[in-house]
UniProtKB/TrEMBL annotation:
Belongs to the dolichyldiphosphatase family. It is a multi-pass membrane protein. Required for efficient N-glycosylation. Necessary for maintaining optimal levels of dolichol-linked oligosaccharides. Hydrolyzes dolichyl pyrophosphate at a very high rate and dolichyl monophosphate at a much lower rate. Does not act on phosphatidate. This is Dolichyldiphosphatase. Its main location: endoplasmic reticulum. Signal peptide: none annotated. Pathway: Protein modification; protein glycosylation. GO terms for cellular component: endoplasmic reticulum membrane. Its EC number is 3.6.1.43. GO terms for molecular function: dolichyldiphosphatase activity. It comes from the Eukaryota. It comes from Calypte anna (Anna's hummingbird).
Amino acid sequence: SGDFSGQLLAYLSLGPIFIIVGFVTLIIFKRELHTISFLGGLVFNEGVNWLIKNVIREPRPCEEAHSTVTTKYGMPSSHSQFMWFFSVYSFLFLYLRMHQTNNARFLDLLWRHVLSICLVTVALLVSYSRVYLLYHTWSQVLYGGVAGSIMAIAWFAFTQEILTPLFPRIAAWPISEFFLIRDTSLIPNILWFEYTVTRAEARNRQRKLGTKLQ
């Protein structure tokens, strides 16, 4: 009570839940294979965390302080592992998947740098919150961050080298066509692509509407 920092960090520690909800929403509306793969990596990362916890079985620092935790084991921190997986994978996606061109604009580079700094900052704050709120020790948070980062690099490489070449074939499956699942892996900047295509289509329809009204 009255601990504003603790309350803020408690809200920040809900980050994984908001991220999962965001991914599910994005998949429902975009139905893009790389986004589905990203979510699959996050789920797999959580499974690996559960496995490591139940192998090491290191207790939390203050088990009696939190009666609502789903597991009494704390090594490694699942929040830390989740957030560092998300941040490192997003960093790799920004700088390798959305690869630069020679005429990349300054603002395009700037927003990537700013977003990367924000991702790392949030991951650090969520990791710190687990120690501040007595859910984990520093070592549990540190190893969670390391595990999440390694998993992110491995899953990104797996997605790029193994899954991405299969995406066009998967997108052509009848079930994929039925659910409107698409592959945008060959498009360097999907935001710019969708913007230009939508603007061109809107202008085309406006011209056709104007012709009919005449």
